Amino acid sequence: QLPTGLYKKVLVILHDSILPYMNEPTLMIDFLTVAYGIGGAISLLALNGLFILIHQHNLEYPDFYKKLYSLLDPSIYHVKYRARFFHLLDLFLSSSHLPAYLVAAFIKRLSRLALTAPPEALLMVIPFLCNLFRRHPACRVLVHRPNGPEGMSEDPYIMEEKEPSESKALESSLWEIQSLQNHYHPDVAKAAAVLNQSLSEIEDDISGLLELSGYELFDKEVKKKAVHVPLEFEQVRGLFGKKNDIFAEHFAL
What we know:
- By secondary structure, this protein is mainly α.
- The protein is built from eleven helices and no strands.
- It has a domain at 98-225.
- It has helices at residues 4-18, 29-38, 40-56, 64-70, 82-92, 100-114, 119-135, 141-144, 175-180, 186-192, 214-222.
- The longest helix has 17 residues, at 40-56.
- It is elongated.
- The relative contact order is 0.09.
């Protein structure tokens, strides 16, 4: 049992400052699997070390994707380790051999959580979802389902289900992204509208969006040149602005 602060300090540097210098990195399997099971930010940070053991040292982790799916909660769009988590999530979901129901569950859960996400996170996750559709064409039924959300009396997706295969995500539709097309931030609405068109074959590069912050969005908006929009087509005359108004003869604005 380690203090939470110490867990975080160790896990932040484990993948690049500890594991490469160990003769037997597999000795860290128990430590990382326990950390991965704790939940919250500690689980997110343990992903880096687990990825190295899985990718380079043939670690087999049963129910890995089930646990990864359970990590998707509203906090993932707000934690400071968001960029690292989505970078690894992108790697874990890059294999074309993953079943469609699994990828659909991740797409649906990320979309549902996006309804309460800040704009800077949405500008990252929407291209992320588009990339998943490009890799896994079988999941495009979520976007192109006949009649879409209008043809459903209720969404069959079960948000509370911990098992991705039982969540019924593949039977649902992405009404959440359709909702984001009316987002108050114009860039988010524009990004969400991309799914209304046929996606290109080339994946979007999300590396520059992972670190996007609210301050950068604010600075971008402030530096935009103001566009002067005429508010009246016809100049106001008189008190009430009507043509041949008797008040216009006696009052002036």
